[in-house]
Specification:
alpha+beta
Amino acid sequence: MKKLILAIVCVVTGITSLSAQTVDDLFKEFKDKQGTECIEIPKAMMSMASGMMKKEKGSDLIKKIDHVRILSIENQPSLCKEFSEKAVNLKKKGYETMVNSNEDNEKTLILVKTKGESISEMVIVDIEPSECTLIQLRGKFSPNDIKALEGSFN
């Protein structure tokens, strides 16, 4: 009996881990689908952009971002539904949840990966019935950098 229970637990664990998606998996799976747009901004472009910015709110944060990837799905309800089902199984190992909101047909999830006291990666997932966005920011910034931006969104 113990062997049977152990076998069932192993199978369930294996199936669960196979269905979980990483951020990279979501980008790979959806970037080439019709109705999606995928933008990647490497460190060199981020450096150029930060050099051109005037001293405004958020300009210090932009200097600290090394890489940005954005996946956008618009006016594709069936594709958004598929994306939503996959994003729900997003592997959160190594990430801390900063925001998890589910209101009026809109889901927002913000995850951060930290190294010491700094944030090395931020992932933002926003899901609506006909629009979905996945944003991945990599760099080295602090929670205070994020807090400094809060006033600009209000």
